[in-house]
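Structure ticket #2291
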Amino acid sequence: MAPSFEKFQKRRVISSYFSVVLCIFIVLTLLGALGLFVINTEKISGYVKENIPMTVYFKREATDSTMQAFGVRLQNIGYIKDYKFVSKEDAAKNNPDIMGGSEDLLETNPLLNSYDIHLKSDYVQKDSIKEIEIELRSDPAVGDLTYDNALVDLANKNIETITFWILIISGVLAIISMLLINSALRLSIYAHRFTIKTMQMVGATKSFIRKPYIWKGVRLGLIGSLLAIAALIGLVYWLDIQLPVLNLWEDWIPTAIILAGVLAFGIIIASISTFFATQRFLNLRTDDLY
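Resolution: structure written out below.
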């Protein structure tokens, strides 16, 4: 009977430890993923902004040399990320609906030669774009210029909104994570409440009793944190393949800070929760243990 009870107790303790590690792993993985999103918000925002094209159309009388000179000018402008010349023939091939099935492109082509320009993200702002538009329109060869200002405003607004809510969710999740980890550790300490009280009754000091349990909590926090870090590294690897523009591996310092934060948070919250859990049972009367 006694061995069976001991096995049951051992399985219950192992199960409680497993629950603690699993809880820490899940919570820290979610927090770390949100942290990675927050620190890469600027990159994501820049990627979206830099893919909004500005199209500069030339007048029909503009010569090839004039358009080439305009391209050289774009090459020396600091706010230009990249640009591409699109001839009216290429534009016609890319827009067959506009041509209406015309066979002779040179005679019936209503389209214009143009440059598709992508601006650097820092300049994709309403005021900056207006100044850039005025500067480019000042060239006598430029006939028209189009840019989706509504899309720029929408991109900026949505990114700010998403960032705000991500920060709110991260704060709420951080609080919930502390409560969940604390509850899981309290349940694991609960299985040892009689041992704690027995040690106290035979004269052991509170600090002496707490020490092994706190170290156990630190080890559980370390295990859960390392598992979360492994999952986050896998997530970073996958994102680097799917979104190479983020350069998560090349720009490794922000990612390393998040991973270090996950490790520190897991260990600190586990040790603090264990301290208060053991303190609670140390302060209970013997009758209250039942």
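Closing remark: The mean pLDDT is 78.
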